[in-house]
Amino acid sequence: MADAALRLKSLVEQVLGVPLPVRIRAWDGSEAGPPGAPTLVVRDRRALRRLLFKPGELGLARAWVAGELDIEGDLYAALDQISGLVWERGEDARSLAQALRDPEVRAAVRGLVKLAGPPLPPARPAEEIRRSRGHLHTRRTDKRAISHHYDVGNDFYELVLGPSMVYSCAYWPAPEAEGATLETAQHDKLELVSRKLALRPGQRLLDVGCGWGSMAVHAARDHGVSVVGITLSQEQAAYARKRVADEGLTDRVEIRVQDYRDVTDGPFDAISSIGMAEHVGAEKYLEYAGDLYALLKPGGRLLNHQIARRPHRDESAYHVDAFIDAYVFPDGELAPVGTTVAQLERAGFEVRDVEAIREHYAHTLRRWVVNLEAGWDRATRLVSPGRARVWRLYMAASALAFEHNRIGVNQVLAVKTPESGGSGLPLRTRTWN
């Protein structure tokens, strides 16, 4: 077959009912589609089999991770164009059944089955997490989910994140400004958190989800506080402990492999939770907020830095992103910022400030993609080609999601206000004194 691309383009357009905005190059070398557009490279027929078995995002993701699909040209432009073509709820049998009532769509699907060839379905890529039955967000399942994402090698994370080793959005003055590097922007984010918490020498800070120790080191070194950092990742903890030792801060920083539900040595003057609460889960969020509230002294502050999704009119119809759940953050859940604020207040906190920094995460993700692409050969050796492809797709797609306001990120400052009613915050809170 020397015209697979033209045949594939025609059949897909019949199914979708719209022209394809990208060019296609098929496994036989043939090409079809608008000249000059980003090219979707279909390296193997197995990609079609995956899409036929799992129409929508998960089928596309499996083909991408397996290396059967690729993109040539502007990655962001291609993802932007393709995202609008995927079934909004591709794994919903009712949506597919409705589409298949159309005789032309049924005929096109039969044509795709013939073009794909046997057998169906291919094996899942090794990078996809294998699900176990049982309840989500137990101590065991949370540790397993964290390990899947974070225990892939500290060298790989150094390549992607850069010297700062901060895995949450940086705080940019302006990305194009002179001197606005990823490292300085991450430093500015850690300093912003420190100022919001009003850290002072002699205080105790609990850093929940401490990662590779960046916030713990910053707080101890630059603000003179004693820090307990907790993570469920063995590799993160080992890296953070070495970092603390190298900085000469072992007398002020303790790094533990510990679940936040098992911390019993409060009270603390302040708690930072930076990019960790997305792992907690909706059913456990009030418990999470209550546990942190109990660990704070009266007047203590919590800085909760968390990704949020846009609310849906029908929240019962919300579905976790299939690709993210299977390959990136197993069991992760995003909530609207209003839900987060309400849960913190239900736990007893007084929420004093919410700062939306959505655009900052888009800039950060694009810098991480640059780092990954620049070190691509090394990245594939450090992990696997499939794992590196997961990261490239997830970071680029996430950058677009932030840019298009499909998701956001917010810093919520909350206080365990004492019975006297004094919050300890200045009247003009954005001075962060």
TrEMBL record:
Domain Polyketide synthase-like methyltransferase: 156-400
Domain of life (superkingdom): Bacteria
Pfam families associated with the record: CMAS
Keyword match Transferase: yes
CDD domains assigned: AdoMet_MTases
Family matches, as SUPFAM superfamilies: S-adenosyl-L-methionine-dependent methyltransferases
InterPro entries given in the database record: CFA/CMAS, CMAS, MeTfrase_dom, SAM-dependent_MTases_sf
Keywords, in A-Z order: Lipid metabolism, Methyltransferase, S-adenosyl-L-methionine, Transferase
Keyword field contains Transferase: yes
Family membership: Belongs to the CFA/CMAS family.
Name of the protein this chain belongs to: Cyclopropane-fatty-acyl-phospholipid synthase family protein
